[in-house]
Design goal:
alpha/beta; globular; 13 strands; Nucleotidyltransferase, domain 5; five-stranded mixed sheet; 11 helices
Length: 319
């Protein structure tokens, strides 16, 4: 079974694990909720449990895999396997040896990469970006992350390229979970949207968002809860999603003006859930800010869906 690879996509809301064959086909998968309390060790244990479940479905022991790739938020050091400042995860302000911890738990080699970059590369190699030589991946979920492929090669800069969520879309604007003001993520990240919804509800605005969250037994306002609220005509949810789309369009257009990619791939939990639904207002908002507005990039929804991050992580073992 050494030709099989494992992949784990670590998100702020969910942990998605997959066992992938050499052709990129998923032969086993599992999904669990990301812990909301504790710290990095608790998150690592949940990741290992998800990978074991996926491996059981694929009838393979984790130790028999070629290895396991991990797409992680925060500053993921591919060389050391240490993840730092993954602020959308519980208690993860400092550094944690994630690769080493998972290797002990799974008995298999573990390689670490940035979650959005590996998902972007998966879409480039196997998904919605296959026809292009350059693309910008924008993953709209708990936060807003970006990945780059330029001239058919991943572009990491000095290790922190693609942080589109921390491009400033409004000078002196809303405070971002990163502590700065006016970042794209402060308006479009699911975590920031939830905090804003709660603040406005406390100030007297009406919304069913939190009732729906409790009714469906969710600890957070997931993409599914936002969708239900929109389907119910919840006005506050509509205003906050429109606010997010406005910020996304501004930030994406600014990035396009700088690097001029052929395509933008929209992924992430909210991006996949709302990509087609919000495509027209998103591209319209982008058009307001594109310098070369008669030649916009193609905008596609990530075609690998929720498994894209885990598949991309598994490619870390493919060379």
């Amino acid at each position: 079974m050494a030709e099989l690879r494992g992949g784990i996509d670590l998100g702020g809301t969910k942990i998605q694990a997959a066992i992938v064959d050499p052709s990129g086909q998923v032969v086993g998968e599992a999904r669990g909720a990301t812990p909301t309390t504790g710290g990095p060790q608790d998150v690592a244990e949940a990741m290992a449990a998800a990978l074991r479940e996926a491996a059981e479905q694929a009838h393979v022991d984790p130790s028999a895999l070629q290895g396991v790739g991990v797409g992680s938020p925060g500053n993921a050091d591919e060389r050391t396997g240490v993840v730092s400042a993954a602020r959308n995860l519980p208690g993860w302000e400092g550094s944690f040896p994630l690769a080493e911890t998972l290797e002990r738990a799974l008995g298999s080699e573990v390689r670490i990469g940035n979650d959005v970059q590996v998902a972007t590369e998966a879409e480039f190699r196997l998904g919605a970006g296959r026809e292009f030589k350059s693309l910008l991946g924008v993953f709209w979920g708990t936060g807003v992350g970006g990945g780059l492929v330029l001239d058919s090669r991943p572009w990491l800069g000095r290790g922190a390229a693609g942080e589109i969520g921390h491009m400033v879309v409004k000078h002196g604007g809303a405070r971002c979970p990163c502590g700065r003001k006016g970042c794209l993520e402060a308006y479009a990240g699911r975590g920031a949207m939830e905090a804003e919804a709660r603040r406005r509800q406390d100030e007297g605005e009406q919304t069913d968002l939190f009732e729906l969250m409790e009714k469906h037994g969710k600890p957070r306002l997931t993409s599914g809860i936002w969708e239900r609220a929109l389907d119910h005509g919840d006005e506050l949810a509509e205003r906050l999603v429109e606010r997010a789309i406005e910020a996304l369009g501004t930030g994406i257009a600014s990035a396009v003006n700088l690097i001029d990619p052929e395509a933008v791939i929209l992924g992430g939990g909210l991006g996949i859930r709302f990509g087609e639904r919000c495509m027209e207002p998103l591209t319209k908002e982008m058009g307001k800010h594109l310098f070369v507005d008669d030649r916009p990039p193609a905008v596609r929804v990530a075609s690998l869906g929720d498994l894209g991050g885990a598949i991309g992580a598994s490619l870390l073992l493919a060379g």
